[in-house]
Amino acid sequence: MKNMLSGCLCLVNITEVKEIKCxxxxxKHNLTKDIEESGQPHPNEKKPNLNSARQSHSNRLSPKxxxxxxxxxxxxxxxxxxxxxxxxxxxxxxxxxxxxxxLVIFQYPLMTAIQEMCARIGLITGSGLAATIKKKYSRKVVxxxxxxxxxxxxINIGADIGAMxxxxxxxxxxxxxIVATISFAAFIILAQILIPYKKYVKILKxxxxxxxxxxxxxxxVGGNWNQxxxxxxxxxxxxxxxxxxxxxxxxxxxxxxxxxxxxxxxEAEEDVERHKIKEIISDRNSSHNEPKVAENxxxxxxxxxxxxxxxxxxxxxxxxLTTAGSLYENGVTDIESADQAAKALxxxxxxxxxxxxISEVIFALGIIGTGLLAVPxxxxxxxxxxxxxxxWKEGLGKKFKxxxxxxLVIAVSVLTxxxxxxxxxxxxxxLIYAAVINGVVAVPILIALMKIANDKEILRxxxxxxxxxxxxxxxxxxxxxxxxIMFVTWKI
Length: 492
Description:
By secondary structure, the chain is an all-alpha fold. It has helices at residues 2-23, 28-38, 63-69, 72-80, 83-96, 102-125, 129-136, 139-171, 177-194, 197-207, 212-221, 225-233, 241-254, 257-273, 295-326, 338-342, 355-390, 404-419, 427-453, 456-459, 466-491. It starts with a helix and ends with a helix.
């Protein structure tokens, strides 16, 4: 009834406008004024671009609209469960059983708040995080942060590629490690350069399905569900160096610096796709106009973030539960190789002949799938950050000839990470070290992020609310204190 009345009122107003036009043909001002009052679009006004699911004037978020809008947030969440994440969560379950399950629920609002800040910055400004930090402070501040990001990303890329190669050897043991690592590196570089952005995003979405193997195995492994529920809610803390390292590693692989930069730049990339801006604004002092963002688009962005991070943490919970039930309960408390990690999936196929080999295949496919998802995100975030810092043309939507420096950074990141595999570090252990390094590097970047997210000059009326500030502050304090405790106990 309300919609019918609204329609009738609009019709009456339009009729009044037409009468005015007939009586006052020379009065363009009156016509324009009455059209504006009627709430109808001006005849000469350009129609909005309706290609994007996020670009809607409705305040109601239908399930169909929400599903179509899933993109940067979902990819961020899924790439968070990269080989480094899988190894870290697996080790946590194997070493502490259900003792760290509580971190899943505890972390969810923290990571969601942080990624929402990053996404909001990219969406509102049309710029990446590094470009915005550069505007707020200077190159003297942004380049050290980019340097820390590049180092952490390179190590993470190397560890991920090493784990992917080791997983291939579980299926095809005769393939030399060097051949597998070089093949993966070449494929990832060429895919990011040659595959158009729209198709690339769709491919990344489908790769997230490889993580569902852990969910099925977690259900099969099971256990005392009352105990699992209690462990998932009540915190369990141990004052040991092993627990401190694993605590920092879990936060580091979940709330990772590369996700901050990737999220902001991908939201800016979405602005380009919706034709709100011509290209990502890498130089915040340029004359480019910032995108006009509707409130509904912000809501959809937040729903995308919440969904992606929720998926990520559900997989995190499933991995910990799987390794706790299949490894910890059987006395395996330290995962030192890929084949050991694969044993966690044996319950999924225990009724089949050659269950051990089948579980290795499933584990390998999961590692390779998540690696192909995460490594481009890692390398891409480094490319976005450096392009922001130097003011280069950037964006996965651009061709190589239009953003050479951006794509070259991506290639260099992958190739540098590739060489880490030849210094003799075990791939599984390297994954956990990468998570710890991310945890350490994240702290100063989080401080800069909080400053930006509260800057009214940059975000105007879209700065942090009280809840976002509380969650962000808790994240900074916990990660900072965790890093300090880790180093102190390490010395002991």
